[in-house]
Amino acid sequence: MSLPMKLFRCLVVSAICLTGCATPVPVVDTEQNNLRLIATDLVSAMIQIRDLNPTTTTLQISSPKTEFGKVLETAFERAGYGIQRVSADQGSHYLSYAIRAAQTDAGVVNDYLIRVQGVEIRREYNTTETGVYPSSLMFIRGTDADLDIKLSDEIFAEQGGDESYLSGVEGSDQASLDIGNIREIVSDSDTRIVEDRRTAQSLALARAKDQLFEAERQYERDDLDAMSRYKRLVILFNDNRTLELGAVNKTAIRTLTTDYRSGDVFEVTACDDFDGQNAMAERRAVRIKEEFMGLGVPAEAVFRAPCVRASFRHHTDNSPVPAAIVLYRKTT
Amino acid sequence: MKELYLALGLLVLLSAGCASTSGNRLGDDNRLTDPLSEQLIVSDLMHVMSQLLPPRSNTVQFRSEQSALATTVTSDLRERGYGLQKVTADQGANYLSHEVIALTEADGGRQYRYTLAIGNLSVERHYVDLGREIYPGSPLVVRGAGTTLASDIALNTELFEVANDDRAYLFRIEFRERDVPAVAVPRITLITNELVADIASNTVKAPNSVALNSANREITNLYFTNESNFSSATRGYKTIRRDVVVFDNDSMRLGPNGKRKVLTFSKQFRADTDFIQLLGCSNGYTDLPIGNEGLALGRSKRVVDEFLSLGIDKGSLLDEGCWAPDNLDGRFPRRGVVMELKRSAT
After folding, report:
1. Whole-prediction pTM value?
2. Chain B contact present for A305, CB below 8 A
3. Phi, psi dihedral angles at B190 (to 5 degrees)
4. Which of A206, A305, B20, B191 could join B195 via S-S bond, C-beta 3.0 to 4.6 A?
5. What is the DSSP string of B228-267?
6. Predicted confidence band of residue B51 (pLDDT cuts 50, 70, 90)
7. CA-CA distance, A13 to A262, in Å (whole number)?
8. % of chain A residues with pLDDT over 90
9. Pick from A4, A16, A13, A5: nearest CA to B7
């Protein structure tokens, strides 16, 4: 046998032996996967309740004792909620959760619920061989914000299977159930997406947060004509892609906030892009709004101004981006 | 047999790559000090921080991509009962940041400055690495807390042993003003009431877009309005001559033809009765990074400079701009400067 052939055989033998130390392929835990989808569904709904905005809400959570608790805690953390570990049920935003199984004439019904500060979010799910699917509308009690909520339950259809389910929210007042907002989602081979390409939990939660801030616009006060400019601050983001404010900008916003009085409005103009709409500019505006909210300014007191066509950046221009903040005060 | 040895040899060599290392050597996990010392340092700093910022009623924001030190800090925060909020940028009023700076002493010893900041508050202290133990190398400095709390805040005296009276001066707290970060100071402008009033008086009502002209005056882009920024200044004036200087694509070069046109135009100018109003335009796609705005205002400034070189007073020149990535209605030239000679009717 020639030397190259011997060497080749040696390498093959070595390679076979080496497979023993390769990273093991993670075993997909179906139950955990199902719970993760359920947690994503419930938490996505909760994110969109104004009073439970993740930016300003810290949940008190006991050390999770069940798999559902662990999965929920991860989902809340990914959604951007503050998490405070407590030994009992301390705190104004203590999170309680439960899975309830009921023997009914329709078979076993599993009902998953989370409850925070008087708000209860609950939905029934049905587990099949292909995955888990909602088997009821989303029930939301204790808030009147339910009509603004857009569910992200298409994630269940990505499992495929041969199921259909109703997507919609049933609010506190059953009389207000809007049939027009209920739709049927069919889950079959057409909707199936291979496992590693399905919507990631973080993406689904980020979309829910975007939805919250989009819905938030209707509460923002824009009656600026009756007010006068009190102070103005221009901050610069380092480039067109970053959401990082940096220490100086943060200090400047903190300083400006010390002037805030009840009734004042901050107008944030973060978009001056030529096409009048810019996803990154919108995120910058949200970022600034979050900063104000973190400093205790109510969400409705931060008005995100529409895009002004003030500059025309070339698409390759990645120079610092300005955002203008004007503090308006009622004219006395 | 030789082949078998060869294969085994290769196997040993190759498998070395997938063996894991263990031990807590200095520098592992990007740590400057060993984990136990670092834990001690974090306990020391957090003991003071937790008195400044009560744990049960505060949530601390931290970045998800963590260093070993950040992991130690966040687990300390969790144990103390703080709420923890994972953020993607530097969101939050209580955003956690930290810094470790290695300082080399003259005698070759190792000393580190650890700084932990939560929002506006920071605690920092120097620590000397003595090999088997770590020891404070400076008093603990608190910034951003004022001095009102000074008498209520205490060090944890159980963490380090005060070896002798010579080192007693290290075991105290100094309250200092917060350092204003020097970097990027020009990036912000906190505008005062006076400045706001000034801007308000110079800004046309509800401007859609504004920029600065050659005289650093804030002007509105005429693409969005039919009213000139100088309409009040030229009220009662008649337009007695109108010319357009056309520039090459993406160019601010006036060229001989443009210069001749400006010269001819200037001959009619009378300093006592006239204004020259200039409108620089760039309407259409541009490859230049300065964009249409820079191009439009750059062109009008170029014409302003030419008039200045011909001896015309700056105060008689009123320049503004019109810029957009398209030329929808054709009201303005795509790449020219409109020159209008305005003369007082009286």
Report:
1. 0.65
2. no
3. -90, 110
4. B191
5. -TTTTTTTTEEEEEEEEEEPPTT----HHHHHHHHHHHHT
6. very high
7. 76
8. 40
9. A13
Going by pLDDT thresholds of 50, 70 and 90, the confidence category of residue A220 is confident
**Residues from chain A contacting residue B18 (CB–CB below 8 Å):** 18, 21-22
Residue B20 has pLDDT above 50, yes or no: no
pLDDT band at B7 (very low <50, low <70, confident <90, very high): very low
- Pairwise CB contact (< 8 Å): B190 & A231: yes
DSSP letters of B125-157? EEEEE-SS-EEE-S-EEEESS-STTGGG----T
Distance from C-alpha of B91 to C-alpha of A258, rounded to nearest angstrom: 18
Q: Percent of chain B at pLDDT above 70? A: 74
Q: How far apart are the first and last CA of chain A?
A: 100
Q: CA of B17 to nearest chain A CA: how many angstroms apart?
A: 10
pLDDT at A80: 94
| Short-list B311, B246, B243, CA closest to B277 | B243
Alpha-carbon separation of residue A106 from A102, A103, A112, A186, A260 (angstroms): 10, 8, 17, 21, 57
Cβ separation A252–B188 shorter than 8 A: yes
> Stretch B128-144: mean pLDDT, rounded?
86
From CA B191, how far away is CA B161, in angstroms rounded?
Answer: 50
Q: By CA distance, what is B283's nearest residue in A?
A: A312
- Among the listed ranges A5-19, A131-145, B91-105, B280-294, which one has the minimum average pLDDT value? A5-19
Q: Cβ separation of A231 and B193 shorter than 8 Å?
A: yes
- Whether A318 has its CB under 8 Å from any CB of chain B: the answer is no
Q: Which of B217, B322, B224 is nearest to B278 (CA)?
A: B322
Pairing, β B189-191 against β B210-212: unpaired
CA proximity to A231, closest of A251, A248, A249, A253: A253
Is B113 or B65 the better-scoring residue by pLDDT? B113
**Residues of A with Cβ-Cβ distance to B199 under 8 angstroms:** 229, 232
Q: Which two tokens stand for residue A150?
A: 């857009």
Interface test with B, best of A86, A232, A259, A326 (most B CBs within 10 A): A232
From CA B50, how far away is CA A148, in angstroms rounded? Answer: 39
Q: Which amino acid belongs to residue A279?
A: A
SS3 state at B30: helix
The answer to whether B96 and B69 have CB atoms below 8 angstroms apart is no
Nearest to B58 by CA among B80, B90, B77, B82: B82
Which residues neighbour A70 within 8 Å (Cβ) at sequence distance 6 or greater?
A64
- pLDDT given for residue B236 in this prediction: 83
The complex scores an ipTM of 0.78
Q: What is the mean pLDDT of chain B?
A: 77
Question: Measured between alpha carbons, how far is residue A94 from residues A74, A119, A216, B83, B343 in Å?
Answer: 16, 11, 24, 12, 75
Residue B157 has pLDDT above 60, yes or no: yes
Distances (CA, A) of B341 to A109, B242, B266, B271, B275: 84, 7, 9, 11, 6
Confidence (pLDDT) at A71: 96
CA distance B101 to chain A (A): 18
pLDDT (0 to 100) of residue A248: 82
Q: Which residue has the tokens 């067109």?
A: A240
Please answer whether residues A82 and B77 qualify as being in contact, where contact means their C-beta atoms are separated by less than 8 angstroms: no
| A250 interfaces chain B, CB cutoff of 8 Å | yes
Q: Is B315 exposed, middle or buried, given 0-12, 13-18 or 19+ CB atoms closer than 10 A?
A: exposed
Q: How far apart are CA B211 and CA B229, in angstroms?
A: 11
Helix (H, G, I), strand (E, B) or coil at A290: helix
